[in-house]
Design a protein that fits this description.
This protein has about 250 residues and is of the alpha/beta class. The chain has nine helices and eleven strands.
Length: about 250
């Protein structure tokens, strides 16, 4: 089966264009999945599960016969593949065949100044435009905006939105602490979907919590919450929300 035909199977027909996470309990909270041809924001502080959800979405996209590009400031290609394997999500074949491409953005010892950052944002946009990937993920936007003013950041997101209108599905993660509130408001308004990641205390331990703030075109999803923890070698485990104090 071609990957194009597989994409049709994922969509379930022309009237249901969604990107499944490959995890039914999460999809239920997202009205079966995230909308294709959309810009999604995954927001939260450190260690709240942003990358975990992103990895699950990558898995869903690859299993749905999509090509995925990942721009990461968190990992090298090797460490990312190892992380996925530790969650029982083996994507080595997808990577070997070029269906997943990984572009590390962080260079050790290199200091990002305003001029370098503006150039980096422009290069990434150009690279994204030329890519044939169905799904593009930036994890995370925080590094790219440490020396960037609001106008350059919003111009970058506007370019992402334009690519969404031409058929791309783009997801970005960011750390809430790194942005002024008025900038966050602007970013959230530009995005079609917004997932907020938090931590909650369950008994004597913390778990990760995903709140669906908005999804364009979906009904009865706003405020949906799912809590989970990650077990090395096993992957995600959903925790009943009644046990969590958010």
């Amino acid at each position: 089966m071609s990957r194009k035909n597989g994409l049709g199977d994922l969509l379930g027909g022309d009237d249901k264009k969604i990107l499944s996470t490959g995890y039914p309990d999460i999809d239920k909270k997202l009205a079966d999945g995230l909308p294709l041809e959309s810009l999604t924001l995954i927001e939260g502080e450190n260690d709240t599960g942003k990358s975990v959800i992103t990895q699950q979405i990558i898995w869903g996209g690859l299993k749905g016969s999509m090509n995925v590009d990942l721009y990461t400031s968190e990992n090298t290609a090797k460490s990312f593949l190892s992380q996925m394997e530790s969650m029982s999500l083996d994507i080595s074949d997808f990577f070997a065949w070029g269906h997943l491409r990984i572009f590390p953005m962080h260079t050790i010892g290199f200091e990002w100044g305003p001029e370098e950052m503006q150039g980096m944002l422009r290069r990434i946009i150009r690279h994204m435009r030329e890519s044939k990937a169905d799904v593009i993920i930036i994890d995370s936007l925080t590094l790219l905006t440490e020396s960037t003013d609001q106008s350059d950041l919003l111009a970058f997101l506007t370019n992402c939105k334009t690519m969404v209108d031409t058929g791309k599905t783009i997801l970005i993660t960011l750390h809430t602490y790194a942005f002024q509130e008025d900038t966050l408001v602007r970013i959230r308004s530009i995005c079609d979907a917004h997932l907020m990641m938090k931590r909650a205390l369950v008994g004597q331990k913390y778990v990760m919590v995903m709140e669906v703030v908005k999804i364009r075109g979906a009904r009865r999803t706003t405020g949906n919450i799912v809590s989970f923890e990650v077990h090395p070698g096993f992957g995600m485990k959903i925790i009943p929300i009644s046990m969590a104090r958010v």
